[in-house]
Amino acid sequence: MKKRLPILFFLIFSLNFLQSQDKKPPSFEEVLSLKSVSSPEISPDGNHILFQTNAVDWEKNRYDTEIWLSKNSKSPFQLTNNLDGSSTNPKWSPDGEWIAFLSKREEKTQIQVINFHGGEAFQVTNSKQNIGSFEWSPDGTQIAYIETADDSKKDKEKEDKYGGFEIEDKEFSFDQLWVIPFAQKNLNHYPLPAEKKDSILNKLSEAILLIDSAEFTITDFLWSPDGKYIAFNHQPDPILISFMKSDISVLDLNTKEHQILVANQYADGLLDWSPDSKSILYTSDLDNNDSNFYLNSRYFRINMDGSNNIELGKSFDENLNNLKWTSSGIYGIAWQKTKRELFNLDPINGNVLPINCGFERIYDFSISKNGKSIAFTASNDDDLVEMYKNEWPLKSNQKITQTSDQIKNWLTAKSEIISWKSEDGALIEGVLYKPQNYDPAFKYPLMVVIHGGPTGTSIPNPVPSYVYPILQWLNKGALVLSPNYRGSAGYGEKFRSLNVENLGVGDAWDVMSGIKYLEDKGIVDGNSLASMGWSQGGYISAFLATNTDKFKAISVGAGISNWVTYYVSTDIHPFTRQYLKATPWSNMEIYKKTSPMTNINNAKTPTLIQHGEFDRRVPTSNAYELYQGLQDVGVDTELIIYKGFGHGITKPRERLAATWHNWKWFGKYLWGEEIEIPMKNE
Asked: Is the pTM for the entire model greater than 0.85?
């Protein structure tokens, strides 16, 4: 028996080697073309699952979302197919017979409905504006939805007389709450007879405005389980930062009157109703205007009459997301370092307890009306996100999709979580990606890819991408480090607050100390370093470009170059005031300390700058300022503006272009290659 062990080991090793030889490095297009699944919606009886898939349409240069259906946990099939756009946000009718969803099939995005048993979808609403969100009434006889008020006539009259102009922060239309009857009894003989179709659809189009002449905009709403009330979030206007003044009111559907239930000084957010319709779960900043961006959220339950207002989860040191209140408790998801776990929040004592679902990360979930079944999306380090189903108490997970089959023949990323101490002693984690043929005796070039946020989180992923060709760099023979620098989510409130009044400076400590850690281990070539990132990751890369000459090349994606420039032109001014604890006019020194432009004269690193043309989050003035400054001090630089985009690159062709731009830039300065970007499809 002992003599057979070496032979058995040799056979296993040979098999693994041959299997790895069969795998191929994917192209940029293949990586960007990966299909993904999201947004589970389990049927009321817990037997069937709706979900969304996202796929690339290269010909029309767009990402398309369509709805799929798994019946009785069997292989899913595509339910919708909008040739001119996407179909999103599927919702079951309370009896499970109908599926409503949003889709733009003519001029505006409208609510469509399709029967669970089959047939063609038909349009329920005929609104003048796009519909953003909707909910079935608990008895299934109505659908409520949010629609922006139609002020086009008034706007045209103004333009006809005075031309085009806009008054900042005063030109907007309110979002209103409407309800439309769903004549289910007339649809039992689906599909509709042709001679009755028009008359039935006309009845369906008789929408009613629920709240008229309100001096606020409605951002979210939920029916009470007994169908007697609608709770809704509202704020003074639709301007983005007005969410900080949001309150919660309740509409009595019998009297048509609404009253404020929660009105703290700063942001109040509706989360869910209790199953008995007597209480509401909400989140609030109370009177603390500094908590929107980096402090923990706070959670409360309150009775309909305003009594028994109790804070829940006070001892839980992270943010709970996707909270849903069921008969067995309140469920939510939270980051725990690089893991994302399901939790139960007790509505009585406020305790938060983890639930082991058997995965490294849970992304979203849906619980059936009877509380017995759960559908969720999840992944482990080496898998793509898949759809799963389980029963309470949790048993073995039923896998619904096979998304990871797309990469089974690819050379994918190997990853591990590493940690190190930063300059001030803070413990920092990061994801280290290695080539498939990694050799610890070799010193590799290192590509540092920095996430945005700053409250984002880098996690292990077999195919990390966006506009950075990470797999290709790994297969070329490089290491990739994605640090969870101070401010990242998943590490608690204290950690998320470490870059307050220390942006850029502390972030740079975390990146540079991570590089030194890998250099000291002898696996990184300190003369072949690169840094890149988008948004906050772009800002940190810009800060590194002007504060160290350690890197061979840098790429700044939608990054801040000057906090003063950013502050006066961004659409989220409070972000800067909260993190820097000042305006430029009250403390210019903190703005100088944290701005990449302050030390532009020290810049030496060749820097690529990528930015969206219409970015309001980080306006393009930041890109032009950094570009001009680098030119003035004689640093190699290139600025690429992606036409028609805001803060992110959201179309596949431009994302492919941005990937090529990064491949070419780092190929030149790290590997000495002159790369020609192909102009023809091969």
From this structure: yes
